[in-house]
Amino acid sequence: MSILMGLLSAICWGSTDFLAGSAARKIGVSKSLFFSQIFGLLLLSAIALYSYEPFSFSVENLSICIAASVCNLLAMVFLLKALAIGKAAIVAPIASLYGAITTILSLLSGNSLTSLTIFSLGLCVVGACLTSIPKSSDGKRESSASVIFAFLSSIMFGAGFWLQGEFAVHAFGVINALWVYYCTAVVILSSYLLVKKEFSAPPISILSLIFAISFFSLVGFFSLAYGAKLGHVAIVTVLSSLASGVTALLGFFILGERLSKLQTSGLMVIIAGVMLLKL
Q: Residue 227's pLDDT band (boundaries 50, 70, 90)?
């Protein structure tokens, strides 16, 4: 079941990443993220009303849950910024390194570091370098800012998913932990938009796009959290990071994004490294 949840999360997040870049370019990162989180919070609140999940409340547990939420929110912000200015086929594989971050944290918290794990992490790093340095076949160099934002996203996602999987979902349950995330995101983003005086309704023409992003993202988060609750945080997280392959394929077939041979090799190396991490 944990493997199924990881793969479902990968499909949903791959679709989310592909759609999110378009929304961010149309209405901005903060607005697109805020409205997608609003939809998610409403959907999750409705689910919570019909499926109450008992939880163990304490200030420590709530603090960890909020810390995980902030990490995941920052990761989403960095990811959207990267997708808004860079190619999805480049950004997504680099952002998928969060699987390596989560694995390292899981290992440091008590598991042993095998030679295969070290080799797999090395493949991920080499692959990320290959995708970010060379020019693509259209002659345009990938934005260095998009690469940096993608790396920051991977670090924040790695830390956030580790905190969520190891602590938050066990203390609060899957639904409650996700509700805290969405609530935290809405509060922070709404405050930011109000301060910046950018709080306005999105165009009706992209509401369906925002809803689709919100739905796929929510299912992705739920799948990951549920899989992590089963006790396989590293495996589920690494499998979910295969979303980069889904995004890259969507970018290639739908948007016609072309990569150089080195970039294609880097993409394959990252995917191979991520797959090896689950062994």
A: confident
